Amino acid sequence: MLALITGAVDDRSARGIAAAVSRLVTAGQLSAGTRLPTVRDVARELGVSPTTVSEAWRSLARAGAIQTRGRSGTFVAAPVLPRQRLRYSQLGGAVAAASRDLSTGVPDHDLLPDLTDALKRIGDGRLTTSYLDAPVLPALEAVLRDRWPYPPERLTVVDGALDALDRVIGEVVRFGDHVVVENPAFPPLLDLLQTVGATVVGVPMDDAGMRPAHLRRVLADYPAVAVFLQPRAHNPTGVSMSPARAAELAGVLEAFPDVVAVEDDHAGDIASSAPVSLGNLLPERTVHVASFSKSHGPDLRLAAIGGPASVIAPLADRRLLGPGWSSRLLQGVLLDLLTDPAAIAQVSRARDAYAARRAAVLGALRERGVSATAADGINLWMTVDDQQIAMVALAAHGIAVSPGTPFCVTPLETDHVRVTVGLVADDVAQLADALAAAALLDSRGSGHRARPHPRGWR
């Protein structure tokens, strides 16, 4: 038993030891009820202090993976997840009655298609005959498959992109597993991975997406089970992955056959960039999530998941024991919106409007010597001298933005804030003045010279 545990440890930190033990539990090599070696025995064999092993054991105990029974020893138990503070809760603007709340990350309601005619056209809503009906309306599935960036083996509909990510994580990630994400990344994704006890590793980005060389090094160093990507309108940076970059990343993953690629295409039809996916080259290992919240309405609460049956089939089956399916009434509305010429035209106008708003704010900031990125989507990622000072300065103007820290897996070279510029339809110059003044303040309250525009995030 001692040799099994110590042989599985490749990182002799407390977290690394805990993760190794958890992986053995997940693999069935340490079954429930197994008595673990003593802290001193493990410490001696690994050449670390007993304090390090004790910390690892405490982490496992807090997660419910092991259980201490006094003098009887420590035993493997079923995991129970700890409650921890969410990064997501830190994103909202802390400005009471802010005149401009640009922290939300939500689309402009006035640019969403009108649901009135769609609701009328779906009739009396008799779309369900049995609790065991297919989870996706057949006509909607046909439209989704036609729109998909690669032919998915299975496809289902769930209650929004975060519900999709939560359910995919539940199928492919276990406590202690290594998971690779972009750095910066979407805070709720980091929260979801934290709740299952994953060891998250961030890979830096440039203006074409996740950096392939860095991904290769990370996968060579860590036995990861999944890589999570935002292929278009990356939140928060606005980067959209190029087809060439997607091919490079797929090439990296070919050398690591146990790694699943999970893509969150959260911006959907309001993204200016064309759909892109690793699934064109790795369809058997790519799970793609297509959201309709930003393009057709957050209250539709709908997203589609497509990919290998090995992931999607058990996900859909497990859902039968909970909600069963996403409202077929709402699915009917979405089907109508995806096929109605007027709704299609409205989404196209929204896409153009968001592009114009991004360009206007980004251009105004650059004129004022501020570094920012906003290539796609509805958000802008702005470099600031000091995050907290910038937010306080903006709050004095009644402007709320999101802090950059919750997005960061590991700290970046500079501070940032995220600004939802998709909501900025007017007063661009006035807003840019306030943003620039806040961005260029340091802890002494003094301004700095213009910084060069960054090519990447490290």
Automatic annotation (TrEMBL):
Which residue ranges run through the membrane? Answer: none
* Organism placement in taxonomy: Bacteria, Bacillati, Actinomycetota, Actinomycetes, Micromonosporales
The record's listing under Gene3D superfamilies reads: Type I PLP-dependent aspartate aminotransferase-like (Major domain), Winged helix-like DNA-binding domain superfamily/Winged helix DNA-binding domain
* Family recorded in the similarity comment: In the C-terminal section; belongs to the class-I pyridoxal-phosphate-dependent aminotransferase family.
| Keywords associated with the record | Aminotransferase, DNA-binding, Pyridoxal phosphate, Transcription, Transcription regulation, Transferase
**Which PANTHER family does the annotation name?**
HTH-TYPE TRANSCRIPTIONAL REGULATORY PROTEIN GABR (PTHR46577), TRANSCRIPTIONAL REGULATORY PROTEIN (PTHR46577:SF2)
Protein name per the record: Aminotransferase class I/II-fold pyridoxal phosphate-dependent enzyme
Superkingdom in the source lineage: Bacteria
Per the database record, which ranges form the HTH gntR-type domain? Answer: 11-79
InterPro entries (UniProt xref): Aminotransferase_I/II_large, HTH_trans_reg/aminotransferase, PyrdxlP-dep_Trfase, PyrdxlP-dep_Trfase_major, Tscrpt_reg_HTH_GntR, WH-like_DNA-bd_sf, WH_DNA-bd_sf
GO MF entries: transaminase activity
